[in-house]
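Retry 2 of 3 after timeout on previous attempt. Resubmitting structure tokens to design endpoint.
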């Protein structure tokens, strides 16, 4: 897989940047994210190369990559906006945007599993390098039990491990593209490793498989610096985009059916409502919490309507907790 990614980068270098500047334009991006994306590409034209790798990789991995590309573009646009609001210096804003463009780069890469001894060795080496670089200080339990990944319910579950494998791949990509110091790459990788921690259902999955509370701390570290917190919160906030949640065939309704067994629009909406009702408070920054709550209030009534309930009804009180989470 790493050879395929690196080969794609080599091909990108064979053409002028201008000819590939619109690689993402065949995919829809709603406002205000389109304007924020345009702004950051004007500020940092080299990020178009990172965008191109993301789009090309998603198109290779998926029959229909539109939802994944939408998600990654919304994340990177939010990272730009949050970094501006937090008054980060331009160099850090660039790294935050690059992080969100690449945070899911291995989420659909089937060969990259931590049940593979070679991949696990690469992951362990990555964690060791990050700790040596001064990262992951607040997560002493993280990666303290590699044997957990021998269980295929964890180590072969791309949803649960793509934060690790994605950090490995992102490092390869940025090294090949050039223009990023070893310190830059370590910060991006550390942020990618910590971007999934806020997903309570991932943490629950780890605890359930391991059959012990807080086992997730061995798999997910806490985001530490501003870049990591922005990547973490932008990923959460992006989930609340109505286009990814409400329409039939949208990312979250598909996940409700495929991951949690929902059948039909009502059950899909019920599952998505429950997931999101517990998700918006996971943001690690005040700005992130405010943005997530704002978007939740926008999609909440649409999900209630899909369930066939009256306005203002609490679906959990009316229908209970969805079976998948009981």
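Retry 2 succeeded. Sequence:
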């Amino acid at each position: 897989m790493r050879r395929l990614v690196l080969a794609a980068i080599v091909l990108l270098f064979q053409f002028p940047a201008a000819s590939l500047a619109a690689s993402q334009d065949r995919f829809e991006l709603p406002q205000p994210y389109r304007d924020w994306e345009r702004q950051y590409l004007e500020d940092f034209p080299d990020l178009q190369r990172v965008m191109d790798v993301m789009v090309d990789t998603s198109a290779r991995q998926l029959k229909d990559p539109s939802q994944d590309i939408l998600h990654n573009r919304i994340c990177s646009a939010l990272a730009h906006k949050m970094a501006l609001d937090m008054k980060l210096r331009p160099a850090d804003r660039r790294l935050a945007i690059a992080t969100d463009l690449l945070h899911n780069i291995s989420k659909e890469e089937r060969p990259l599993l931590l049940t593979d001894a070679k991949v696990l060795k690469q992951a362990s080496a990555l964690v060791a390098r990050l700790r040596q670089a001064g990262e992951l200080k607040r997560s002493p339990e993280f990666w303290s039990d590699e044997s957990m990944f021998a269980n295929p319910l964890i180590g072969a579950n791309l949803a649960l491990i793509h934060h690790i494998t994605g950090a490995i791949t992102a490092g390869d990509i940025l090294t090949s593209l050039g223009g990023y110091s070893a310190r830059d790459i370590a910060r991006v990788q550390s942020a990618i490793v910590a971007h999934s921690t806020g997903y309570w259902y991932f943490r629950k999955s780890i605890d359930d498989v391991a059959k012990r509370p807080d086992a997730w701390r061995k798999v997910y570290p806490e985001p530490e610096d501003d870049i990591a917190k922005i990547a973490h919160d932008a990923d959460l906030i992006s989930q609340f985009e109505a286009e990814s949640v409400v329409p039939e065939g949208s990312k979250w309704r598909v996940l409700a059916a495929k991951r949690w067994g929902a059948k039909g629009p009502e059950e899909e909406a019920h599952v998505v409502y429950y997931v999101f009702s517990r998700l918006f408070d996971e943001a690690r920054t005040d700005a992130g919490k405010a943005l997530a709550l704002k978007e939740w209030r926008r999609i909440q009534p649409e999900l209630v309507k899909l369930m066939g309930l009256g306005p203002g009804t609490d679906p959990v009180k009316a229908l209970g907790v969805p079976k998948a989470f009981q």
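Attempt log closed. The CA atoms of residues 6 and 63 lie 21 Å apart.
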